[in-house]
Amino acid sequence: MSAPLPRGGALHELRRLIPYVRKHTKLVVLGLIFITISNICSTAIPYVVGSMIDTLGSASFTSTDVTWLIVKILALTIGSGFFMFATRRTIIVMSRYIEEALRNDVVAAVKDQSQRFFHERSTGSILAHFSNDISSVREFIGPAIMYTANTITTFAFALSWMTSLDVLLTAAILIPVPLVATLTYRLGKRIHSTYKVVQQEYENITTHAQETASGIRVIRAYVRGAFEATRFNALSKTYYEKNMQLARVQSLMMPGMTVLFNISYIIVLTVGGYQVIQKTLTVGELTQFFIYLNQLLWPIAAIGWVTSMIQRGAASMGRLGALYEAPSDVTSPTSPHDVMITGNIVFDHVSLSYDGTTQVLDDISITVPAGTSLGIVGAVGSGKSTLVGLVPRLYDVSTGRLLIEGVDVRDIDLHVLRSSIAIVPQEAFLFSESIRDNIRFGNPEATDEDVVAAAMRAQLHQDILQLSEGYDTVVGERGVTLSGGQKQRTSLARAIAANPKILILDDALSAIDADTEDRVLRELEQIMKNRTTIIISHRLSTVQQCTNIVVLENGRIIESGSHAELLAQNGTYASMFERQQLEQQLS
To answer: What burial class does residue 378 get, using C-beta atoms within 10 Å of its C-beta: 0-12 exposed, 13-18 middle, 19+ buried?
Structure first.
């Protein structure tokens, strides 16, 4: 599911950027000073050119006069170019700094969210924020600010020079300005709304591409390549059509500006030509007006371009703002308890519902003393993974309390809590790095000897030695070069290397054959000593050595006790055990 489109006007959405710009006030001020000096130089050039033309038209001019005027023009041109370069070195660099800060803040906003946040947003939609949205905001902060300042200062200085020459002619030139403002305002609103739709379609196409790449094995296995290609083509066509709508709106801006600008040319030629005939305006002064109009051509054209960038930046900043401001239902306490975690866990009448109506866990009460083990079994969808997800606060309880060392987990600093816990999920996620780095991920300070020891305990060492580069073998995206069992054992080795106080195995041996599982379990007996361990498994052989075992059904505990006690109850657990024993004998 995608994040909702942001609401509000462009200025409201762009206010979010004020804190970022304030951090680079010095660069902004320097950039504005440089662009002002650049335009002072450039707008002085027409005056010198006009003076040269009038000088050449007089009978008393000398070569020294002309040479001096040429030197002035060259000096002003060099000054204008140099300070424009300095402007780019300040404002554009500032925009890159802010782009970096925005990317870091997006990562910070995403990593602090609970699991519920990721249930509501696809990976592709989050990636779209990193690519298009941040780039659009940077274009507004850099080029848009620079060209806006350029437009304002050019107009101010050019109009000052023109007014000093002839007030009437200057006033006549300004006739098209209200039309320019009206055109810019109306087209700007359409660009803003259209670009929001374009960004939403880009998010959809990014999501589909990411899911297709991640699920390419499934797509090939079910021969759905042509179908997925057709779906992607349909999304691409929609994205193309929305972009074309945006392009059509944007394409109206430049021609409209050009027409209005040419009207100004006609006005200067008509009114100024008449004044030259009447001897109230010199040819040099009329030439100055034409040069000033040429200087105003780019700023006028830039109004449309800048408007487009502002509206696109505002739409993207609104989307980013919605991501930043997405409330996290799992946050670190402002005044956390100072607690030394040893692994004493108490589920005190814990209940959980995702949306306030659907009950996932119902009145769960379990005590897990430090150094003991808890086995959790039950049918698919009974709430096993959700229950263990409460311990590192992937979710927070709806009612009841989860206590660690007698302290509510909501009162423990998140970093302290999670750094004491290692989770081995059923679907092992590996990074596209070496096996060594994947095992060391949970404990960056682990030595090579620690990595090898963890791999040996996870029964992975011999498999690694068979690989071409051993522990330096890069496993590919999501560990694509390894088998399912190898990935699970790599994930287990990662948890072992982290040396946590609380170890959670969420059906972590499901892809491992029975013989390897037996060897892993023997190693786990040593690992579990003096360590609180919670094991979820469909294979009862994995949990039968646990201190306590609970059976979940529809989010409730229906049986609990040791392996022997549960068999004696002759209930659900006993039936599961008998069935698995029979299956094992038949196999």
So the answer is: buried
CB 322 within 8 A of CB 8: no
CA–CA distance, 372 with 404 (Å, rounded to integer): 14
CB 337 within 8 A of CB 496: no
* Cα–Cα distance measured from residue 553 to residue 360, given in angstroms and rounded to the nearest whole number: 10
Q: Tell me the pLDDT tens digit for each residue of 1-57.
A: 344 444 455 667 778 888 888 888 899 899 999 999 999 999 898 888 888 887 776
Neighbours of 229 (CB within 10 A): 12
Q: Which residues, other chains included, contact 469 with Cβ-Cβ below 8 Å and sequence gap of 6+?
A: 434
| CA atoms of 348 and 365, how far apart (whole Å) | 5
Cβ atoms within 10 A of the Cβ of 139, count? 18
Alpha-carbon gap, residue 533 to 480, rounded angstroms: 29
Instruction: Answer for the pair 533, 505: CB distance below 8 angstroms, yes or no.
Output: yes
**Amino acid symbol at 261:** F
Alpha-carbon distance of 275 to 283, in angstroms, equals 10
Element (DSSP H or E) covering residue 490: helix 484-498
Residues 445, 431: Cα–Cα separation, whole Å: 18
- Identify whether the C-beta of residue 61 lies closer than 8 Å to the C-beta of residue 89: no
Can you give the pTM of this predicted structure?
A: 0.65
- What's the gap between Cα 418 and its chain centre? 23
**Inter-CA distances, 430 with 23, 125, 208, 481, Å:** 38, 22, 22, 11
Q: Which domains does the chain have, with CATH numbers?
A: 10-202+250-324 (1.20.1560.10), 345-586 (3.40.50.300)
Q: How far apart are CA 205 and CA 128, in angstroms?
A: 9
SS3 letters across 291-311: HHHHHHHHHHHHHHHHHHHHH
Instruction: Quote the CA–CA distance of 288 and 161 in Å, as a whole number.
Output: 9
Q: Which residues contact 193 (CB under 8 A, 6 or more apart)?
A: none
Tokens linked to 471: 């522990």
| pLDDT tens for the chain, residues 1 to 587 | 344 444 455 667 778 888 888 888 899 899 999 999 999 999 898 888 888 887 776 666 677 777 888 898 899 999 999 999 999 889 988 988 988 888 888 888 777 776 777 766 766 677 777 777 888 888 788 887 888 888 889 888 988 888 888 888 888 877 776 777 677 767 767 776 787 788 778 778 877 887 787 677 677 777 778 888 888 888 888 888 888 888 888 777 777 777 777 787 788 888 888 888 888 888 888 888 888 877 876 676 666 667 777 777 787 787 787 777 776 777 788 888 889 999 999 999 999 987 666 788 999 999 999 999 999 998 888 889 889 989 998 888 889 999 999 999 999 998 899 889 998 887 888 888 888 999 998 888 889 999 999 999 888 888 888 888 888 988 877 677 788 788 888 888 999 998 899 999 988 877 777 778 788 888 888 888 888 999 998 888 888 889 999 999 989 999 999 999 999 999 999 999 998 888 777 76
Q: Is 548 exposed, middle or buried (0-12, 13-18, 19+ CB in 10 A)?
A: buried
Rounded CA separation 298/305 (Å): 10
From CA 511, how far away is CA 501, in angstroms rounded? 25
Q: Is residue 253 a contact partner of residue 308, using CB atoms and an 8 Å limit?
A: yes
Residues in the chain, how many?
A: 587
